[in-house]
Amino acid sequence: MLLSGGLDSTTCAASARADGFDVLALTIDYNQRHRVELEAAARAAAACDAVRHVVLPLDLSVFGGSSLTSDMPVPKGDGKMSDSVIPPTYVPARNTVFLSVALAWAEAAGARDIYIGVNALDYSGYPDCRPEFIRGFESLAEKATKAGDEGEAFRIRTPLLDLDKAGIARLADRLGVDAGATWTCYDPVMRGGEALHCGRCDACRLRHKGFVEAGLPDPTRYA
Q1: Model pTM greater than 0.85?
Q2: Domains, in order of start, for the chain
């Protein structure tokens, strides 16, 4: 389970448990701007009774190319979001890199199901959140591994893929996820030693929109 500590991945982990799986939780510390999510990932791993939680350092800031891994500013919303323009918060090939590492651990551990909380509806236009990317990676996993060569298929499970953010909020509520313990914001605001969601980046606005449209209270602490 690729576990960032966000609402999506935490709900995805709860879904994996509901599906009857034991969870090996993998969090990538890629020197992201919103590193506070690593603490949320630890909470999420505990909440889903992860058999093991690995936090793997993999510093993508040495490449840059994203406002999450460099000094580029995080865009703050004007109330409009488009999936036709890939925003600067896109981290080059991030999900390809992350799934490759997850695949390596899965093969070593004898696991054949890999969960990732990608979402193709209410998202920020990232190409590595699309169904065709997931299908392509499954095909790659079959060709790139000893297990695949021996006829053992890997399945990339994406229980949130076809849900909008309201649907994800409802699923989180139904699965008993503590949404207030998750972290979404790309550009945290520190106030009195406490990290708060900025409330203005795409991630924050999509998160809040989801709770509102689901008819659920938003437990997020915003600056």
Answers
A1: yes
A2: 7-183 (3.40.50.620)
